[in-house]
Structure formats: C-alpha cells, structure tokens
Amino acid sequence: MPETWENWNWSTNYPAYDEIRAYFDHVVKVLDVRKDCAFGTVVVGADFNPKSGRWHVTTEDGRQATAKYLIAATGFAAKRYIPEWPGIDKFRGVIHHSSFWPEEGVDVRGKRCAVIGTGASGVQVTQAWGPVAANLKVFQRTPNLAIPMRRRDLTIEEQEQLKRVYPQLFSLREKTFGGFCYDYSEKGAFEDNEKEQEEFLENIWKEGGFRYWVASYKDYLFDPRANRVVYDFWARKVRERIHDPATRDLLAPVEPRHPWGVKRPSLEVDYYEQFNRPTVELVDIKDNAIVGFTETGIQLADGTHHEVDVICVATGFDVSTGALVKMGLRSVDGSYLKDEWASTVHTYLGLTISGYPNLFHMYGAQAPTALCNGPTCVQVQGRWIVDAIKQMERRRIKSINPTAASSHAWKHRINELSDQTLFPTTRSTYMGGTIPGKPFEQLNYTGGVASYLQEIRAVLPDFRGFHIVKPE
Q1: Of 242, 246, 289, nearest to 270 (Cα)?
Q2: Rounded average pLDDT over 332-353
Q3: Please, what's the b/e burial string for 239-277 (b: 16 or more CB within 10 A of its CB; e: otherwise)?
Q4: pLDDT above 90 covers what percent of the chain?
Q5: How far is 211 from 176, CA to CA, in rounded Å?
Q6: Residue 412: closest CA among 455, 369, 467
Q7: Rounded CA gap, 237 and 468, in Å?
Q8: Measured between alpha carbons, how far is 233 from 279 in angstroms, rounded to an integer?
C-alpha cells in the first residue's frame, strides 16, 4: 500500500518505540481506520452459529458483535508471562514487566536495579540502565546469543531513492526463508575451508541485523558440526569484548549450552560492554533459582538476598498460542480452544482451526511467525485471508471449516520439517518450552516463508482440506 510509506521517512534503520508509534498513527490517519476500531476492548467470548453462519463475539465490558468472518490478529507475543514467585506483591520498590512499561519511563538514576531475564527485553533494558543506574544486577538463566544490530542514521535522500524499488523488495522478501531481503548462503559450512568460513562469517557479522541468523550457511540449523562452526565464531567475537573471565564464561561459554540459532538471538548495540562496568553484575540463576521476593529485594535458592530499588521483570511471553486461547473461543462442538490446545496445538495452514468455521488467525501457531520478519508473515497471511474471503463471497459459500484430517496432516508437516532440524534439541519459545506445563512441540513452520507461501496458496483454488457449506 504505497500510501502508507510514500510520504514517510525514518530517522534510522532501527527506530525506537516512539517513532514506530508515530508511524502507526500515520498509517491510521492515511487509511482512515480509527473510526473502525474499538480501542481498549478485550474479547472474552466468541462462538459460531452454524445455522446463521455468524460469529457472536462478547467483550469484557458486555458489548456484543456479530460477523460472518472473525480474524484473530492477536500476535505471537501478546500474553505476558510472569513466574509465580512467592512474595512478588510484597516488594515495596518499583517493579514492572517489560510489557507493562510506564508511558513516562522508569527513572533509575542513583537506584539499585535488577533485570530478571536476558531475552530481547532484558538485553534492551540492560543497555539502557547500565550507563545510568547506581548498581545493576542482571539475573541470567540462559545466555542470550545476541548479534550486532548495526544501527545507523538514514537520510531522506537514500530512502527516497530506495522507495523506487520498494515493490521489488517487498516481493523479494516473500522468496526468502526469513522474510527479509537476504537469505541463507547456497553453500554448506564445509564447502568452505577454514579461512573461507572465517571470511564469510565476518562479512555477515559486519553487515549486522539478523543476517548472522538467517543469511548464514544453509546447513547450520541441520548439521551439529556446521552449527558449531557458527557458534565458535560467535563466541570468539563476543568473548573478546568481555573483560572478566568468569562473566565471559557465563555470557559466551566456550562450550555451547545449546546449538546456535535454535533460540531466537536478540540484536544488541553494546550489551556485552555493560558487564565491563563496575556497577553492573551478572547473577547466574541457572542452578540457583529465584525462589521469592521480600519487601526489599530478591531471594535465591541458596539464601542469597539481593536488595534492590527497581526491578524489570523481563521474563517474556506465552508465545504463539497464549493470546488466542484467552479469547474464550468455543467450537461448534461446544469445546473451548484453551482446553483443546492444553495438550497439543492443531491448526490448518497456521491460519484456520478445525471446529471454528470462518475463523482466521495470523502471526500465530504453525506458521513461520517467530522465525521470520513479522510484517512479511502478516502480509503473506493477510493476502491469503482476503483472497479466501473474496472467493467465498464470489462462490456464495456460507462457511469453510478445516477437517480434522487436514489439521492432523498439517501437524505432521510441521513436525516433519522441524524434526530435520536442531530445534527439537532445546527447550525454547519455538518449542513451547519456556512456559511451565506447556506442551513441548514445534509451534512454527520451519520451512521458511517462500515454502510456506507456496503451500498455503496451493489450497486456495478448491479450498482443499476444508468442509464447505453453502446456503440451503
């Protein structure tokens, strides 16, 4: 949609939240969609009436709506996760989950601070607080194998020139694994000698962004030996930035805790340098877990007590499924999605769910979601949904409902792709392994955006795998 970008320019290739929000406001204004939105509205129930062919949706404040089609664009990281730590409500200082961040920010100057968690939010907050806090303790269970962001300013001139080829770049993104304008090398790691490996990895390291993750050797997520080549280079680059030997071994161990890339790497600017500050301390909680909170701080299993004034709970999200199962979705058989997915996830194409006619979801389970550039995934799926609805209206179809058989076949496809990789070796968000009680299973389509696009488009002409209902 050229109208959303032709009169917009960015200040940098990685803008902060305020600039991103300004862009969202720009898009809302240009497309004139604010009048169609109900902000601050929580959906608590939705069920489909097969006779009328309509969804009935109920919100938390008692409002109701009906529609032929229901699209759940709930995102993959909308439901925050906070461990059930005893005493957390007794802490008398300032405490926020990273997704509950105050609009005015958090002033940590001269304060004793703690960051719990070293995922993407933990990395960002550590970089922000490290230079200004009186003392900062970062509580780490698993090291984040972060890679350079390479943030830089953008000129209006270069963006105006680039806009001439935006359509081609948008198309290119859908032909790659990760939905970016770059892709894996055509070579495997051992098609290069050691010198060539070093040169190749150095180049994608210098270019920055997610290139080291999804523009590396094509076999490193499949072959443990190739993966070790990628890990060892990463470890060398990071270890040379960390002064203290003990901290170095915790942040970038010589022996990997898990294969590189099977947990999503974060982008960083000066994350590792923060731990060279005398005021920043890394607290290893892998074998000495947080067992509770007191009025003044954090208690560990060995009895150690860390007194702090401000805490950032950067413990992440119940990804891919968390938000969708909280909507009160009820199937035509009377069962609830939260119960159906308690033991395992089933979708068809990562877009629809058997038993829920005319329900479409996007950027969620069993799609490329967490393994790709978000906007690319959303555009690929959004276009499919629009085309499906257009076809239904054109053919006067009342509803489509994926069959149980097609859902099981898609589940098999998800596992078939994943089992060829190193992903199942590690308890990660990709595998649902970071939330207690959540099934350990692949939640993403691991074949890449280009392959996914082909598979879902092949279904559209005849709605293969769907039960079709037409008006009587």
Answers
A1: 242
A2: 95
A3: beebeeeebbebbbeeebebbbbbbbbbbbeebbbbbee
A4: 88
A5: 12
A6: 455
A7: 55
A8: 29
> Mean per-residue pLDDT for 106-120?
95
3-class state of residue 459 by DSSP: coil
Is pLDDT at 152 greater than 90 in this prediction? yes
Task: Specify whether the CB–CB gap between 371 and 419 falls below 8 A.
Answer: no
Do 38-79+319-469 and 88-162+216-313 show the same overall fold?
A: yes
* DSSP state for residue 191 in the 8-state scheme: G
Retrieve residue 171's tokens: 């198309």
Q: Tell me what pLDDT residue 78 has.
A: 61
Domain ranges of the chain: 38-79+319-469, 88-162+216-313
> Which value, in Å, is the radius of gyration of the alpha carbons in the chain?
24
Pair 189, 217: CB distance under 8 Å:
yes
Task: Provide the CATH number for the domain formed by 38-79+319-469 in this structure.
Answer: 3.50.50.60
CA–CA separation, 332 and 356 (whole Å): 6
**Coil, strand or helix: which one is 425?**
helix
Question: In degrees, to the nearest 5, what angle opens at C-alpha 385 toward C-alphas 380 and 389?
Answer: 150
Residue 470 scores a pLDDT above 70: yes
Q: How far is CA 213 from CA 173, 246, 415, in A?
A: 16, 27, 21
Characterize the bridge pairing of strands 267-268 and 297-300: unpaired
Q: Which amino acid is at 27?
A: V
Cα dihedral value 176, 360, 263, 77, nearest 10: 120
Supply the CATH classification number for the domain 88-162+216-313. 3.50.50.60
Distance CA 268, CA 276 (A): 15
- In our burial notation (b when 16+ CB lie closer than 10 A, e otherwise), range 42-63 reads ebeebbbeeeebbbbbbeeeee
Q: Are 336 and 45 in contact (CB under 8 A)?
A: no
Six token digits for residue 30: 């240009």
Q: Side chain identity at 132, as an amino acid letter?
A: V
